[in-house]
Prior knowledge:
Layout: E1 8-18, E2 24-34, E3 38-42, H1 49-56, E4 64-69, E5 72-73, H2 78-83, E6 85-88, H3 100-110, H4 117-126, H5 142-154, E7 160-164, H6 172-187, E8 191-195, H7 199-205, E9 208-213, E10 216-222, H8 223-230, E11 232-239, E12 255-257, E13 263-269, H9 277-286, E14 291-298, H10 301-317
Parallel strand pairs: 3-8, 3-9, 6-7, 7-8
Antiparallel strand pairs: 1-2, 1-4, 4-5, 9-10, 11-13, 11-14, 12-13
Helix pairs in contact: 3-5
Organism: Povalibacter uvarum
GO molecular function: ATP binding; ATP hydrolysis activity
InterPro entries: AAA+_ATPase, ABC_transporter-like_ATP-bd, ABC_transporter-like_CS, ABC_transporter_ATP-binding, P-loop_NTPase
Amino acid sequence: MTETIGQPIISVKNLVKTYASGFQALKGVDLSIRRGEIFALLGPNGAGKTTLINIVCGIVNPTSGVATADGHDVITDYRAARSKIGLVPQELSTDAFESVWATMRFSRGLFGKGPDDAHLEKVLRDLSLWDKKDQKIMALSGGMKRRVMIAKALSHEPQILFLDEPTAGVDVELRRDMWEMVRSLRASGVTIILTTHYIEEAEEMADRIGVINKGEIVLIEDKHVLMRKLGRKQLTLHLQTPLQQIPAQLANRQLELSADGNDLIYTFDTQSDSTGIASLLRQLNELGIDFKDLRTEESSLEEIFVSLVRSSQVRLSQ
Ligand SMILES: Nc1ncnc2c1ncn2[C@@H]1O[C@H](COP(=O)(O)OP(=O)(O)OP(=O)(O)O)[C@@H](O)[C@H]1O
């Protein structure tokens, strides 16, 4: 066990996927997932997220490149690699006529694991599904079906769990429950890779964030570092007397005036040593511009993401 600590649990090197149509969905992707982390893979529609996951899970063959799961090559050592992985796919696909319990047992067996009813019971209890164990899946609500998909993916005790858009179309309460559940899975040692279109989800959950766009990884970063690095802050000064325009003396500052002239908005870089706020306030005082109130706002991960994807589109199209 000790020799594996510190090594990535998933390693992807120079992965290329060209579909039969000739479309290149992955253009040489490198990615290392750390043991025990929650990694969020973000990207617009068609960026290649599902293709990447499907290759690591052995569902899609890469055109070239290498991927390993817990040291096992996903092609040459497929069975061992796959047994380490649980996958909750984007589309709900369950055996509708089976009971929850039967589906779980069958799924575990598929991975060559002997029966372990105690484990299955724990998974179902953790997902608040125990009282539904004898129900046919088709009789469950959409949210419950989603939980069953997760339970099924955990039936063979995987160390790695892929969640492909786990909370798409799920109500707020269930989303919160699922976040809670993902956290407790991580606490039990499972490594989690999730894709999401809800940036809020990544902001809430992830330790690290990867952004993929048009088949290329644009960025991989610790979430807090990312937010610190790319985040901008805004200081909004609510003025005593509205301004018609920004005075010429302030022209060289990063200032905007709201349409009604009531708010002066100053944008500054959180990374730079000096924010320039003190000198701005001094200058406003000298110019006799008083304000009633001030507030600061930090850019959200959503804003960072949108600007990243935009800038990579610019870069890619050049
Ligand atoms: N079997 C296939 N044949 C040809 N092209 C495909 C196939 N599967 C996916 N693609 C294309 O590859 C690209 C990447 O698709 P993929 O499903 O990996 O994206 P995604 O990032 O998961 O998108 P979404 O967020 O919409 O789920 C898309 O342009 C898609 O149309």
